[in-house]
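User: My advisor, Dr. K., asked me to get a structural model of this assembly before our group meeting. I'm new to this, so sorry if the format is off. These are the inputs:
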Amino acid sequence: MASATIAAPHHDLAPLAHLRGKIGMWCLIVAESAIFSIFVVAYLYYAGKSISGPTPAQVLDVPYFASICLFSSSATIVLAEKALHIGNIKRFAVCWFLTLALGVIFLVETGREWYKLIYHDGLTISTNLFGTTYYSLVGLHAFHVTVGAIGLTIVMLLTLFGAVKQEHSARVSVFAMYWHFVDAVWVVVLSVVYFITR
Amino acid sequence: MAEARPIVPAFPPVAVPAEVAGRRPFVQVLHDWIVTVDHKRLGIMYFSYGIVMLVIGGVEASIMRAQLAVANNHLVSPETFNRLFTMHGTTMIFFAAMPIVFGFANYFVPLMVGARDMAFPRLNAWGFWMTACGGILLYFSFVGGFGLYGAGSAPDVGWFAYAPLTSPAFSVGHSTDYWIIGLLVSGFGSIATGLNIMTTLLCMRGPGMTLGRMPLFAWMNGVTAFLVLVAIGPLTAAQIMLLIDRYLGGHFFDTQAGGSAVIWMHFFWIFGHPEVYILVLPAFAIVSEVIPVFSRKPIFGYNIMVAATIAIGFISLSVWAHHMFTIGMTSYANAFFVASTAAIAVPTGIKIFNWLGTMWGGKIRYSVAMMFCIAFLCQFLIAGLTGIMLAAAPFDWQLGNSYFVVAHFHYVILGGIVMAVFSGVYYWYPKVTGKLLSESIGKWHFWLFVIGFHLTFDFMHIPGLLGMPRRIYTYEAARGWEMWNLIVSIGVVFQILGVLAWVYNVLRSHFKGEIAGNDPWDAWTLEWTTTSPPPDYNFAHLPVVRSRRPLWDIKHPEDPDWKYE
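Assistant: The format is fine. Below is the predicted structure of the whole assembly, which you can bring to the meeting.
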């Protein structure tokens, strides 16, 4: 009777288990997209509804340099992934460092922009609806870039200590998905804040 | 009914070392539970946490019903009453119902798909502790709501916390902040658990367990996990906005500065309505396992059940503004949300017919688990019918914010979800503890609770129809509401007795219950192939799944399901 059970070979117990990092990250991206889309909707809904100035047209300049830096970092992280995949740790370290540097430049540029808005244009989060929605949407994105930069720094330090090896390539790729997501969100934020509603 | 069938192979227990077998000190046991990453222990913890919160929320409800039992009553002050209904709603939705359904999913999804554990066991523990701490934060408001120097006060803004009541001007002190942060924190935990369940279903299935062979329990919890991922985020975003308004002087919901109070309602209900399905789909999941086993037939229309579940998942994202007909939306918006709400009744109706089709011609065993399922079917049908009534905008203009609405959604939650949860407890308690629950005490539990439920919630519709608004702390005599309110409150007594019978049953059976064995119900899904309770590693021996009822195939090699699927 018991012979009716067919035992599975041990390595086949969960044939898709190696995909779980990727799927898990996709789930996180879906959840994060839901959060971002509510902030984007709020920004669009309140665009032009402030009852006092300053307005976006008066104070916002398109952050071309910062955006180019952030978008390029998606390319450098792909190069880093490829280098690690074939086991070229040195090239991986260089490309990874470039990614981190580009991310940090983006954050510094955002900081400079906010400094100008706060101290020269007098726009804070409580000035008007534009200020409230602008700082929360751009700030939520900048917060995600910061989290990404912390992750990049940890992997960078591990690489410098020689702890990152070819076999970690899949895990590094999962982290890179998050970084690409943060970049993709910037495409939306940039279009909405600096082009569509300005 | 549970004849000994020697067909399922029994596996010799692993020898326990002598030093482990003895009674261990309490601190060590506690430590094991706190640091555990085992999905079964976390499932039990989720469930137990939810039950404790269910009792707390039930006490709050009972005090409210005592206050409303007679006209012109002053048992509690109006301020206390506001806190009671706020805490009752928040507790029941976020800290009772969600942990309970996550508890079931945590325990049984990996077992049913033949996995060793969830995809991310440590994230699973993190999710539980976030939810647990969120609840503790919410209840800490009783102590710390005005800051540490004064007496506390619980949130009193209602469970959906409409703006501008939550603005700093109208909500002084920190009670609303505890509400916001408690839900924010538990929301992160829920997202983690949703992510984990989804990844487990997609990546951790055992050999041969294709998506088309997954038990409906797994399917429905998968759609729930999807809804958790897309619906909790909007609540999180809205809570962040509210914090910005309260602490940084933002204007999201500040009408004085051009903000909108209505957009809070939209954001809240974009979360709030899918949340109903986050709670009810796991209830459907339980019913879809229990009804076939106790009707001795495979589920009727497996494919259409999966399709209907997915349809509910998507349509539930587009019905939220039916909570807002009374605020005066455009007629186009009203028409859209009336139509989408009516549309979601279709897949739900399909499910009701499929469960009936499963029972039709079956050899039904009226055990307590099945009785709760039958109660679920009748009550959920009525809940759906009053839902369709309320989905018609003009009807809703008349009865929105009345006790009719309160009766309707309690019919869904108590009559539907809680009945399914009780059914699930009677069905799976033997698997989790190795002991059967007593059927005779179970019948007391069933009848007391069902009678109490109907006394309370059938008669609650009537004061609503007579114009009694929700959330009033008392009412004048001679409006024709007194008798109905008294009956409603008397029903609560029966419900309390029913729950006490259940708690007694659970505790008594834990010590004195009949030994269950691996498969007391002669069931067909994978969790019944392993021991009761399952070992840490779940399966010593995992069969290759070839059909939707792997255990049937093992028991009936002469007539396996895979020949026909």
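One thing worth pointing out at the meeting: The mean pLDDT of chain A is 93.

User: Perfect, thanks a lot.
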